[in-house]
Amino acid sequence: MKLTIRILAFLFILLINGTVNAAEMKLAVTTSFNNSGLSDILLPEIKKDLNLDVQLLVVGTGQALKLGRAGDVDAILVHSKKAEEEFISQGFGIHRREIMYNDFVIIGPFNDPAKISQSKTVVSALEKIAVTKSLFASRGDDSGTHRKELSLWKIAGQDPEKFDASWYRAAGSGMGATLNTASGMNAYIMSDRASWLKFGNKGDLKLLFSGDPVLFNQYAYLSVNPEKHSHVKFDHAQKLEAWLTSAKAQKLIGEYAINGETLFIPNANAKVN
Questions:
Q1: Which CATH number covers residue 47?
Q2: Which domain holds residue 123?
Q3: Do both 111 and 42 map to the same domain?
Q4: CA terminus-to-terminus distance, the chain
Q5: 258 part of a folded domain
Q6: Are residues 120 and 210 both part of a single domain?
Q7: Does residue 166 sit in the same domain as residue 244?
Q8: What is the pTM of this model?
Q9: What Cα–Cα distance (Å) separates residue 6 from each residue in 15, 19, 26, 131, 133?
Q10: Are 90 and 222 in contact (CB under 8 A)?
Q11: Is residue 125 within 8 Å of 209, Cβ to Cβ?
Q12: Cα torsion through 123, 125, 131, 132, rounded to 10
């Protein structure tokens, strides 16, 4: 009887300690980051090193920033520098910490009807798609990728709001879903490189244009300001930032590859802004 009581007491202590030690936080991340599969590599290591369960809310950058402003998440990981800096300047975030980068690419049909593979700049490629009215699938969801696409159309002197829906389709969905739309339509699409490499339903699509410096795609981490929302788990968010910028995490990010192709280049450093 005494042995049974001791065993039960021991189990109760384990249960209490487990509850006390368990830590959770919410992180809003872009669909492009989630589609890459990198989270499957990082989350178990975060749990092991920090005893921290990170709950991902997978949304576009615009929605991630809204969640941060509302205090519905503890931190965000997004890729739209101008919007991030506005988030900080308005006091919703403490600072912006760069974590890693890759690039955007233009995907399209094998036969490349707009001949964009011969372009020297991405603006030239988009101009050719618009002139030929070749099928194009847009995220259309206020994501970082969508915002980047719109900025490039603007540089090209084009207004997507005036495009005919017969060739320009706004999917209003995440990167993976929009890639599926493009595959089904055999259309052009702008994607981050990581999502394209991870994408399994390529169909008759191929990477047709890349390499323009303007297609640089930086990902940054922002902790939500506890002065705006006292309930946010700022300590956990700061611990996660320190981990993501650590030598171990940066090495994991840099070594993550699909079929020998690296998806992200780590570039965290001591500088914050």
A1: 3.40.190.10
A2: 104-215
A3: no
A4: 62
A5: yes
A6: yes
A7: no
A8: 0.86
A9: 14, 20, 38, 79, 76
A10: no
A11: yes
A12: -160
Say if residue 21 is in the same domain as residue 42: yes
Residue 272 falls inside a structural domain: no
Could you tell me if 79 and 98 lie in one domain? yes
Phi, psi dihedral angles at 119 (to 5 degrees): -75, 150
Please choose, from the candidates 168, 170, 155, 79, the residue with its C-alpha nearest in 3D space to the C-alpha of residue 122.
155
The answer to whether the CB of 148 falls within 8 A of the CB of 192 is: no
Q: Tens of pLDDT along 204-246?
A: 999 999 999 999 999 999 999 999 999 999 999 999 999 999 9
pLDDT tens digits for range 118-161: 999 999 999 999 999 999 999 999 889 999 999 999 999 999 99
Buried b (16+ CB within 10 A) or exposed e, 12-38: eeeeeeeeeeeeebbbbbbbbbbbbeb
- Other C-beta atoms closer than 10 Å to the C-beta of 208 total 20
- Bridge partner list, 162: none
Q: Name the domain count of the chain.
A: 2
| Same domain, residue pair 142 and 10 | no
